[in-house]
């Protein structure tokens, strides 16, 4: 199937469990490196509300704003949520540019989606001086956002598997801003010497990735995925 991507078993991102304290999080990760958190929250209730059937029943007629799946997200398109799920939620076409691929992530109308987000349990850690904002998304296998950076945040997979690639702020990755992550993985990644490869890992449902401020990152959904990020701005 176009867009289907095998899982890479290698994980070079450090992992931590519920024993990680807030002070250790601040000391070891908050300002220096990413970490995958397991077992820090229980979002089974939120997950139960995020099935295809539940989401279509609750939000089907409401418009959602789609962004192009490229580094700068030049174009925005509004379509009914039901139309996105039934007609646009497909595996990534390897031949299409990111600037020609529409993707639902981030542009959430909080008047309409707010009641759903009330059921989400965010990670228990914060960066001093920041406040959280949610970004909810659904995307097909092989889709993703190519390399970009912004402020710090967390990202949790609700359904599916999501592969992440990360570089520190001083190590700008080689990529074309209109190329999809899938194309980068197929064409550029195999040519990278080991020392130039990113930190990477595949997240599964219930796992949360934390990424520090200004870290480059790209994502690749290995399945049709539902995910939510907590940006700290």
Automatic annotation (TrEMBL):
One GO molecular function term?
A: cis-regulatory region sequence-specific DNA binding
Q: Which PROSITE patterns does the entry mention?
A: JMJC
What InterPro entries does UniProt report for this protein, alphabetically?
Cupin_8, JmjC_dom, JMJD6_ArgDemeth/LysHydrox
SUPFAM superfamilies, A to Z: Clavaminate synthase-like (SSF51197)
Mention any one GO cellular component term assigned to this protein in its UniProt record.
nucleus
Pfam family example for this protein? Cupin_8
What residues does the JmjC domain cover? 99-233
Q: What is this protein called?
A: JMJD8 protein
Per the UniProt record, the source organism is: Spizella passerina (Chipping sparrow)
Its taxonomic path starts at: Eukaryota, Metazoa, Chordata, Craniata, Vertebrata
State which gene encodes it.
Jmjd8
């Amino acid at each position: 199937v176009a867009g289907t991507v095998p899982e890479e078993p290698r994980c070079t991102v450090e992992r931590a469990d519920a024993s990680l304290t807030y002070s250790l999080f601040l000391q070891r990760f908050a300002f220096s490196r990413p970490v995958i958190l397991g077992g820090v929250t229980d979002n089974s209730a939120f997950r139960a509300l995020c099935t295809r059937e539940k989401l279509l029943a609750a939000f089907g007629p409401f418009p959602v704003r789609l962004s192009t799946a490229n580094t700068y997200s030049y174009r925005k398109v509004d379509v009914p949520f039901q139309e996105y799920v039934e007609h646009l939620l497909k595996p990534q076409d390897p031949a299409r540019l990111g600037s020609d691929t529409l993707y639902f992530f981030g542009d959430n109308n909080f008047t309409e989606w707010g009641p759903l987000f009330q059921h989400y349990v965010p990670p228990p850690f914060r960066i001093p001086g920041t406040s959280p904002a949610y970004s909810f998304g659904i995307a097909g296998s092989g889709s993703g956002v190519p390399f970009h950076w912004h402020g710090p945040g967390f990202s949790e997979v609700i359904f599916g598997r999501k592969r992440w690639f990360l570089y520190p702020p001083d190590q700008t990755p080689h990529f074309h801003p209109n190329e999809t992550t899938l194309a980068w993985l197929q064409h550029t990644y195999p040519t990278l010497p080991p020392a130039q490869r990113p930190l990477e890992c595949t997240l599964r449902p219930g796992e949360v990735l934390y990424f520090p401020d200004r870290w480059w990152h790209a994502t690749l959904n290995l399945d049709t995925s539902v995910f939510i990020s907590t940006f700290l701005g």
